[in-house]
Amino acid sequence: MPSPVPVTRLLPRDIYPSTDIGVCSSPLAARLSSHGSALQVPAPRFHGKVSSRLWSSVIHWKELTSVQPVGSGGFGSVYRAEYLGETVALKKVKKCSKNKLASRQSFWAELNAAHLRHANVVRVIAATAHVPAELGDEGAAGAILMEYAGGRNLRQVIYEGAEVEPLPEDRWLGFARDVARGLQFLHAHGVVHLDVKPANVLVSADDVCKVADFGCSVRLEGDVGPLLSHVGGTYTHRAPELLRGQGATPKADVYSFGISLWQMITRQEPYAGDRQHVMYAVVAHDLRPCVRSHPAFGTEQGRRWRTLLSRCWSGDCRCRPSAQELLPQLEQRKS
Fold this sequence. Notes:
- The chain is of the alpha+beta class.
- Helix content is 28%, strand content 16%.
- It has 2 domains: 7-147, Phosphorylase Kinase, domain 1 (2-Layer Sandwich), CATH 3.30.200; 152-331, Transferase(Phosphotransferase), domain 1 (Orthogonal Bundle), CATH 1.10.510.
- Residues 1-53 have low confidence and may be disordered.
């Protein structure tokens, strides 16, 4: 669960919610409540009927059919469903009884990239903070309808198929380029993901990767994001400056990308041991995943990836490449 941050970091200026948002009010609907009218945001239609550049603050629940669970975790639950004739993913964000504000902010953060469209970022179709009681989800902070980007995430491809599913260099390079393109686009539009890891990258049937799960993300109003009072995201992929309590920048995502790239190359877990010990060692002793003993880094090409990794997870964020700078290096082919 991400730590509470100012609402102004989570949504564009034209859709800030009021400070008194009410129990079930949508952050978008609050903007127009004083006008006594419904929010005039056209729902996206499929098959080119209406432009999908805008998303809706209304989910037509009666149009949602064939709902099947896909997975669940600390964030809530994800389902596959049919909506207006298309296959979609439904994500219900869990309401945390101990920190309701953090739950709502996690839901709002999920919408940070809702107004953006890119081939390597999961597209939001509709979202609402009101989930009907008849669905048995009184504990949901909100629900989000997204494009269905595939039934697997990158972590499953890396680990669960290790014995039967090859992951040669050409394939993981394609995955890495997709993720880097998605991050480049997000950063160019002032969104920092802050939880980049294989489990948060969906893989389509055509092996196209899409960055997903924006519950920890922030919107930048300058070069540096807010100071986070608690460590959110996933500790194995968390940049050391964030562990020290410094502000978020796009370079934090590049650090996480580096850890994820190492996982793609080695198909191993980055760290073993106690969580607190790992976090301390990352900050105080520059602990990083091992590249010396793994055979993948022993070749001439492997040494090039080793150099790239060392730059991505540098303890000094100023030494890390930007997502845009990553792409030319990932596009180089083995001679």
